[in-house]
Amino acid sequence: MKRLKQILVILMVMVSTALLPEIAHMPYKDTTRFVGYAEESEVLAEDDYEDFHWKVTADGKLTIFPKEEGTNAEINDFYMTLENPDPLDINNHYMEVPTPQPWNEYCGDITSVVIEEGITSIGAYAFDSMMLSSVFIADSVVDIEKKSFYATSIENIKWSQGLRSIGESAFQGLKIKELDLPESLKNIGDSAFRNCTGISSLTLPDSLKNIGEFAFANCSSISNISLPDRLETLSQGSFYGCKALTSVTFGNGITEIPWDCFSECSSLKSVVINGNISVVGTTAFSHCSSLSYAYLGKNVNIIRGSAFGACPNLEKIIIINPDTEILTNAIDTTKCTIYGAANSTAFKYANRYKEISPFEVYGDVNFDGDFSIADLLTLQKWLANDVSVKIESWQHGDFCTDGKLNVFDLCCMKKN
Q: Can you say whether the dihedral through the CA atoms of 350, 354, 355, 361 is positive or negative?
């Protein structure tokens, strides 16, 4: 019997040894849960909350996903509304007070957040004032509510490609340098990216329709802005105090540049307002201390008070529409020459300040005091090298504002 046991043991060892190569080459089934872009480490805490599950791991990551696999869930709002105890604050009868998130005890340990597929909305104050460095947002997320990532110092974001709306002050004060928003985005709320002083590169998607009040105010490193054609609404102070801004391109969907929209943009040197813009609002470009040139196209119907106020270096403003209403003190006339049609509202405005603000007839290349078919024929002959034609004032015909006089200016002259 003892001998039989020994034989059985030997046989088992031989079988195990023979199977080792097979085991070594068997496919490895990784049961580790991957979230976003990194492998999960030791779990410090986790729990269910409403319709979602949250988990904090030792690597400083907070992961949130639907409680039940294959379902959708929303991350709740974390604030309550109370009556304002300050009797002197007559404009705000109520105040919002943040409430603790379920992961509040671990906020000091969390440096990154991963929002997994199935989460559709990120609630107000969800990650307010947490010291985050990175955020991963799955493509299922369509709404990010107000102050959800307020004052979080985020440096890297992977955006949801299904995102439609960013709420009020949602990312105010983050540290990101390049902001490339997803093509699905339609609405940017008030102060959404206010005081994000690190943003130097801003890409707005073609899908965008609305930019809220002070949405990018004091983003002092943005150097250029291109507003998409589908954008319908700018708001008060949308780009207020963008001190590094040197150029703005307006899309065809915008009809108004509102109050304070580009005020205090101290590096902005020139602005061309074309397309369908009909209103240049109060203080829209006020205190743009480097602004020297402005062109207002034929659709501009009104320039409101101080629209170009406190622009001490404004030297030339061209107003194409002869009937544009120009309100009192709309233009800083300290150094400015106003160009427009003879007997136009621009002429009358300049005449009001004639001691300091000269007026020139724009398009008057033959310098006869009027812009007419004669100027068009003069430029046409001059471009055809007709030696009998002399251009008295080529600057008046520079419709493309590129410092040259060519066939493109002739085309623009025909349109005007």
A: positive
Token pair of 363, please? 């398009």
* Stated pTM of the model: 0.83
Q: Which structure tokens are listed for 388?
A: 């009998």
Residues 189-198 pLDDT 10s: 999 999 999 9
Please count the residues of the chain: 416
Helix, strand, coil: what percent of the chain each, to 5?
Answer: 15, 25, 60
Query: Angle of helix 407-415 relative to helix 373-383, nearest 10 degrees?
Result: 160
- CB contact at 8 A, 179 and 199: yes
Q: Nearest 5°: phi and psi at 29?
A: -95, 110
Q: Specify the residue for token string 């969907």.
A: 253
- Contacts for 108 with CB less than 8 Å, ≥ 6 apart: 131
Neighbours of 119 (CB within 10 A): 23
Q: What is the pLDDT of residue 9?
A: 43
Strand partners, 188: 166, 211
| Helix or strand run (H / E) with residue 346 | helix 345-352
Q: Distance (Å, rounded) from C-alpha 94 to C-alpha 407?
A: 62
What pLDDT was estimated at residue 26? 38
Q: Which residues of the chain have pLDDT under 50?
A: 1-11, 13, 15-38
